[in-house]
Amino acid sequence: MTNQTDKQWAIETQDLDIYYSDFRAVKNVSLKIEPKKITSIIGPSGCGKSTVLRSFNRMNDFIPGSRVTGGIFFQGQNIYDPRIDPVQVRQRIGMVFQKPNPFPKSIYENVAWGARINNYKENLNDLVEECLVKSALWGEVKDLLQRPALSLSGGQQQRLCIARALAVKPEIILMDEPCSALDPIATLKIEDLMRELSAQYTIIIVTHNMQQAGRASDFTAYFTMDTDRAGSMIEYGVTSQVFTNPTHKSTEDYISGRFG
Amino acid sequence: MSRENLMLQIHQIQDEMLVMGSLVEQATMKSIESLKKRDKKMAVEVYNADRKINEKRYAIENSVLILIATQQPLAHDLRLLAALLEVSAEIERMGDYAKGIAKVVVNLGDFDIPVPIKEIDQMATLALSMLHRALGAFIIEDGETAKSIPAEDDKVDEMYNKVQRLLVNLMIEKPQNIDHANLLMWVAHNLERMGDRVSNICERTIFVTTGELVEIESKKKEIKL
Amino acid sequence: MKNPLNLVSTTTYGRDLNLEQRQKKATIWKALFRLSTLVGVVALAILIISIVNQAFGLVAIEDTNDRNDFISTSIKEVTKTELIQLIETNLSTNRVRTLDREEPLVERSRHDLMALVETEVFKQRIVDSYSLFGSIFTPNTFRDQVAKKHPEAIVEFKSWFTPQFLQESMSKTPELAGIRTALFGSLFLILITISVAFPLGVSAAIYLEEYARQNTWLSRVIQTNIDNLAGVPSIIYGILGLTIFVRAFEPITSGRLFGYEGANGRTILAAGLTMALLILPILITNAQEAIRAVPNSLRQASYGLGATQWQTIWYHVLPYALPGILTGTILAISRALGETAPLIIVGAATYITKDPSGLFSNFTAIPIQIYNWTTRPQQEFRNIAAVAILVLMFMLLSMNAVAILWRNKIQNKR
Fold it and tell me: How far apart are CA A235 and CA A250, in angstroms?
């Protein structure tokens, strides 16, 4: 990672520290996310990888006592600037969660809802179709749009959640262990989908499954817990490099299963 | 279920391997050509071009290792990637043989010796044809073809013996020829080894298709007391 | 029972696992649990049987004055003018004047006049009644008893539950009394209660669960208080309602502020508001439970799409919590419907023949009627009280059924 200042990163963090009340959960993270690529964040449990991901669209705001120091820059703006409305941030930076969590509504409504509440002016039917096509679900559900979303399989539900996120036209999609509740086949489908989406969107994925990080991502950031239990970023680089010849001993131990 | 990314990258490596194969074919043909014409300049070109083949091999090896590290290939995919490592090594060695022939041409200098070029040319043509078809079979994973190719190696061996006899006769006829005839012996030897390497490639093709590591050896090669 | 198979490794546990004793203990506990359930079922059955037992049975009817002295045909064929004539000629002028003052005779309904003739002129009385089981198994005991005491009386089987009972208003004669006024009173009361308590309760629950900071000193005090209020005796709410709604807010609850000629604050509005106060804590705690049960993933999904907190609550939290909130509301309605004590304190009328006509009218309610009838000395009032209980139970069950159906419909839409 070179330190070009003129390059437009998708997200750039500077000396990011995240606290839960007095506990420092994450420290000193300076990370530059390449636009329109897939970046994965891996690391052992409790290393703060999810916390970092959630700070990118201010989902941590809902946890009482959480606060952030340092900066997270999105298009040159610090998203933690008090003048910025987090709702706006979340519209630009979408999120897909660990467990598929479609709304208990119809498939159509799941995709259309986000656009509707954000005051979408154009044809909703077109938008729903476009998003379902992009999330590789259109073929399976095009005749079932009024069926309840919860009647879909887990993998389909997760792709619906991706379609739902696409409908609000984000630039970045955060994925918090999107496949941990899915079977291997559904997992691979989501990974293929991520690859296709990365042509248009920046994707950041947190995963427990380092094989998934290897398979699906272009860049990998390895986080681990320090002795003070604060998570920090140990290594960040091109995925193939990190997986075949990591720079740090700790990374090597983790990816080769010798952690601890 | 497709695993598009993995398939795409495996295909890219296979393409690289085909390019490498054709580089070796070219190098071999050019080295024989230089022997025919006794063109040292051409031989030097062949000799130096081998670096490119070696680089290709390292690139392939690297790509295969990255794929194994990041994509968790299993079953057929894993066999294919393991075979790619092996096959690229075999092709690289064949490139070295071509390089060896080019070196002989340089070492022969302008020394006047009747080269049994017709037989050598035939050997080269046969070995390269085997290589060409073996690589084709490897790509399309045609186990039947792969099984049939090694039999043709007997023909190469036969011609190797013929060239050997010719060169020995040459040495008996004219002892001054011994050094240079010996060099030419190496040319024939290298071409004969190429046939063996092709057999190894065919074994890998069968490994990819069936998962079995078998030695395809023609009966004639067994030594009897 | 000896176990013929021994599968247990003798080295680790020895030969004896003490299985027999353990299984015996399990059987004993199971029997105990079954017994407890049985006790509940039996208690419930006894309750229903005793009510039904009162609602039907043999009665002895007797005219004090021989009706043939007054009319030649059946009373049902007598015209309204003749009825008035009968009353005016046979009752004392004083009594006629009193009746006329209550409600002019000419304006009274035919049924009312008939009842007057039966009770005041013929002085017809049900002189005795008998329980359902007695009537079925030992009717002769009753007949003998009646023959001894009231030789003139006719014994016949009577279902105290009649269509008339639902249609008629109050009467001093048990066989003519009905429950209509109380039924409308109860329904109207519940309507006022729910329309006040439901929005208040749900809003408070939303605020406490979604907006208020959890685990602060203040929120914990509020929470504890709400939980405790749900257990406060209802009579205390009655006193509260009396002080606040009946007395302090009299200009409002009597309707005088709105130009209505109300006598005092003892109106259905005051009672409804009191009831609303009473069920508010139940409603709030139930709604809170329902809102707390909404999976957090749903909220996160909504926020993740750039929804505001209000949009998240309105479009996702509330619809998801609605079935749970409805269940709580059903419970609260049942509680309010059966509550008697606060109504007595707030001042529900025990004898009223006029249906509630607006927010500021006097009223009565079914439990008040039941309470009132059961305190009367005559056996016959106890019979109609039993029927009123049946009506109340039916009302509760049908309201619950409607709410449950509605809830299931919402849940099935998912």
Answer: 9
**Beta pairing class for A38-42 and A202-206:** parallel
Q: Do chains C and B touch (3 or more CB pairs under 8 A)?
A: no
Distance from CA of B212 to the nearest CA of A (A): 28
CATH number of B69's domain: 1.20.58.220
**Chains contacting A with at least 3 CB pairs below 8 Å?**
B, C
What Å distances lie between residue A151 and A128, A141, A146, C294, C341, CA to CA?
18, 11, 11, 19, 50
Domain extent at residue B8:
3-221
Which of C326, C329, C321 minimizes the C-alpha distance to C197? C329
- Rounded CA gap, C412 and C405, in Å? 10
Q: Could you give the dihedral angle defined by the CA atoms of residues C290, C293, C298 and C303, in that order, rounded to the nearest 10 degrees?
A: 70
CATH 1.10.3720.10 domain position(s) in chain C: 180-413
Work out the minimum CA distance from A213 to partner chain B, whole angstroms.
8
Task: Return the H-helix or E-strand segment holding A222.
Answer: strand A219-225
Question: Can you tell me the mean pLDDT for C178-193?
Answer: 90
**What pLDDT score was predicted for residue A2?**
44
A90–C306 C-beta distance less than 8 A: yes
Burial class from Cβ neighbours inside 10 Å (0-12, 13-18, 19+) for residue C24 reads exposed
> A-contacting residues of C 193-212, CB under 8 Å?
none
Q: Does B2 touch chain A (CB under 8 A)?
A: yes
d(CA C296, CA A87): 18
Best CA proximity match to C187, nearest among C410, C412, C396: C396
| Chain A residues with at least one Cβ partner in C under 8 Å | 57, 59, 62, 64, 87-88, 90-91, 94-97, 99, 101-105, 113-114, 117-118, 148, 150, 161, 164-165, 167-168
Architecture of domain C180-413: Orthogonal Bundle (1.10)
Q: Which residues contact C352 (CB under 8 A, 6 or more apart)?
A: C169, C170, C181, C362, C363, C364
Spell out, as residue ranges, where chain B has pLDDT lower than 70.
1-2, 217-222, 224
Residue C302 contacts A where some CB pair is shorter than 8 Å: yes
Chain-wide mean pLDDT for chain A?
A: 90
Residue C168 half-sphere exposure toward CB, CA atoms < 13 A: 23
Question: Half-sphere exposure (CA, 13 Å, Cβ side) for C104?
Answer: 2
Q: Give the Å distances, CA to CA, from A77 to A31, A34, A67, A204, C306.
A: 15, 16, 18, 19, 18
Kindly report the backbone phi and psi dihedral angles of residue C348, in degrees, each rounded to the nearest multiple of 5, phi listed first: -75, 140
Interface check B66 vs A, CB under 8 A: yes
Sign of CA dihedral A243, A248, A249, A254: negative
With residues binned 3-state (H G I as helix, E B as strand, rest as coil), the percentages for chain C, rounded to 5, are: 70, 5, 25
Residue A40 has pLDDT above 90, yes or no: yes
ipTM for the assembly: 0.91
Confidence (pLDDT) at B222: 66
Assigned token pair, C264: 């005092």
Given pLDDT bands bounded at 50, 70 and 90, which one contains residue C12? low
Three-state SS at A173: strand
pLDDT attached to residue A96: 94
Helix-helix angle C268-292:C234-241, to 10 degrees: 130
Average pLDDT over residues C122-150: 83
Put simply, the chain B residues between 17 and 36 with a CB less than 8 A from any chain A CB are none
Hey, are the CB atoms on A90 and C304 less than 8 Å from each other?
yes
pLDDT digits (tens, 9 = 90+) for B176-197: 889 999 999 999 999 999 999 9
Residue in chain B nearest A191 by alpha carbon = B3
Q: Chain A: residue nearest C212 by CA?
A: A64
- Chain B residues with CB under 8 Å of A239 CB are 70
Work out the minimum CA distance from B50 to partner chain A, whole angstroms.
27
